[in-house]
Amino acid sequence: MPWNGADGAGKQIYIALMEVVSAIIDIAKEISNNHQGINFIFISAFPKYAFNSLEVYPIDFITKSLNLFRLEKSTQNLVKEKIVEGLIM
Questions:
Q1: How far apart are CA 59 and CA 57, in angstroms?
Q2: How far is CA 19 from the centre of its chain?
Q3: Which among 17, 10, 43 is positioned nearest to 31, based on CA atoms?
């Protein structure tokens, strides 16, 4: 079940955009283990973290300087996937 926001409004969160620092992959693993349906897009100035990020099956790993076109493409692909799954309209 996708994670509901802390405000309890019932809105489902399908994506987490996270800047990668050393501990963020462990945090993402914890989120992934406890809240099914969250998709990750990681951003980092350190490409060395890309391999470790694969443990949570991210939608994308974008290196800095942030490429807004690539970020837009990643989120559009995710939205298309969720529409096909019937999760969003």
A1: 7
A2: 10
A3: 17
Per residue in 51-78, pLDDT (tens digit) is 888 888 888 888 887 777 888 888 888 8
> 3-class SS at 4?
strand
Angstrom distance (rounded) from CA 48 to CA 6: 32
Query: Cβ distance 65 to 46 under 8 Å?
Result: no
Tokens read off for 34: 């406890």
- pTM score, whole prediction: 0.63
Rounded CA gap, 74 and 10, in Å?
A: 24
Domains in the chain, CATH or no CATH each: 3-84 (3.40.50.2300)
